From TrEMBL:
It holds the Pfam family Fer4_8. Keywords: 2Fe-2S, 4Fe-4S, Iron, Iron-sulfur, Metal-binding, Oxidoreductase. Belongs to the succinate dehydrogenase/fumarate reductase iron-sulfur protein family. Its cofactor is [4Fe-4S] cluster; [2Fe-2S] cluster; [3Fe-4S] cluster. This is Succinate dehydrogenase/fumarate reductase iron-sulfur subunit.
């Protein structure tokens, strides 16, 4: 059964903007992205919203809906109370380009700073071997769709642009953990995770885990184990002595 949905959508650009009221005819079973598309089709053809798959898999339609970072294509209108106004705003941690589209290039710049997977040489028979438990651990991390909802919700950069140069954010702590826990990888990224990625600035609020649409246990399975490894490397006396000798 159809009904009229009351919406407020942020419209503007890098110089400023405001919430604009819309009354949108919607159908039962629709999602927030359907309502935004109807606004584009019938009321404001120039409304900018980024999307691609409409299936929760491309990570493009990330917005903030009633103040919570969410995928617009996976947020059912039935989530809201009868008569509740649905407010859609751009991701707060990133600069606005136009309307709901933000410039997320900070994330790609961070990605470039992480040394790539560097596997050990192949064994004589040419076949890499891994324990099944290691395969499964990595699979959870590789479910990431790079929606950057965890990045925008993290208080370390959400309202603190000045922290970005020294903080990579939860999505990239996940990447550090994925590579660091890979049994065939030969790089040691623990010092980088501390000094360049700023993992020490994370105080385990777990907001990133709460918003992850893939249900990845970012804090418990990636950040905390990574913090432990970083501490081991920094304070373990044998490692410390080894580093000293190596430096001579
Ligand atoms: Fe999105 Fe989750 Fe990946 Fe963060 S870890 S970018 S919330 S899928
Ligand atoms: Fe930020 Fe997640 Fe840590 S929200 S503070 S990275 S637990
Ligand atoms: Fe692809 Fe929403 S449009 S995740």
């Amino acid at each position: 059964m159809g009904y009229d949905l009351q919406m407020k959508v942020w419209r503007g650009d890098a110089t400023g903007g405001e919430l604009v009221d819309y009354t949108v005819p919607v159908e039962e079973g629709e999602v927030v992205l359907d309502a935004l598309h109807r606004i584009q089709a019938t009321q404001s053809g120039d409304l900018a919203v980024r999307w691609n798959c409409k299936a929760g898999k491309c990570g493009s339609c990330s917005t903030e809906i009633n103040g919570k970072p969410r995928l617009a294509c996976m947020t059912r209108l039935s989530t809201f109370e009868d008569g509740e106004t649905v407010t859609v705003t751009p991701l707060r941690a990133f600069p606005v380009i136009r309307d709901l589209v933000t410039d997320v290039s900070y994330n790609y710049k961070v990605a470039e700073t992480i040394p790539a997977f560097a596997p050990e040489p192949r064994p004589a028979d040419g076949a890499y071997r891994m324990q099944q438990v290691d395969v499964e651990r990595g699979q959870e991390f590789r479910k990431c769709i790079e929606c950057f909802l965890c990045q925008t919700v993290c208080h370390v950069i959400r309202d603190h642009e000045e922290n970005k140069p020294q903080f990579s954010g939860p999505r990239f702590f996940l990447r550090y953990a994925e590579l660091e826990m890979h049994p065939l990888d030969t790089n040691d990224r623990r010092q980088l995770a501390r000094e360049q990625a700023g993992i020490g600035l994370c105080n385990i609020t777990k907001c990133c885990t709460e918003v992850c649409p893939e249900g990845i246990h970012i804090t418990d399975n990636a950040i905390i184990p990574m913090k432990e490894r970083v501490v081991d490397r920094s304070f373990d006396p044998v490692t410390w002595l080894g580093r000293k000798i190596f430096r001579r």
